[in-house]
What does this fold into?
Amino acid sequence: MKSYYIKQKIFAITDRYKVFDESQTILYHIESKFLSLTHKMDFYRDKDSKHLFTLRRQLFTLLPKYFVTTPEGEDVAIVSKKFTLLHHKLEIESKMGHFTMEGDFLAHDFSVSQDGKAVLDFHKKWLSFGDAYEITIYDEDKTEFLLALVILIDDCLHDENKRH
It folds into this structure.
């Protein structure tokens, strides 16, 4: 079990995030593309600036649908928002298996599970400049992928409201 923190930069033209460990060392950074119709974001490892994933939204869907791809363009995961009334739910079909994300009504507490077992919990802070998350990852073999999912969930549930 390991803890991470994500902080969104607020005074920027595009969405930018930084991922920190417990000692506040920057491990990853995420940058969105300026004027991208699909709200494309690139996920990088900070120490060597290696491009790990591209995150993008599908256009013209009733409910949001996102894709996680490698830099070469190979799909790693498809993330689909499901219609629910009193909570949030996302289904994630990936090369690493099927995941389900469930969140509370106010979209501040989330849990991602695989085969009924929690692999990730995260909490959005109530008072912060920009979006800030506290993350606990239980399956450390999938850390980079799970951190990319947190960014997608933020975009799907919180930034979607800002665009309308």
In short: Residues 2-163 form a domain with the Tubby Protein; Chain A fold (CATH 3.20.90.10). The chain has a mean pLDDT of 89.
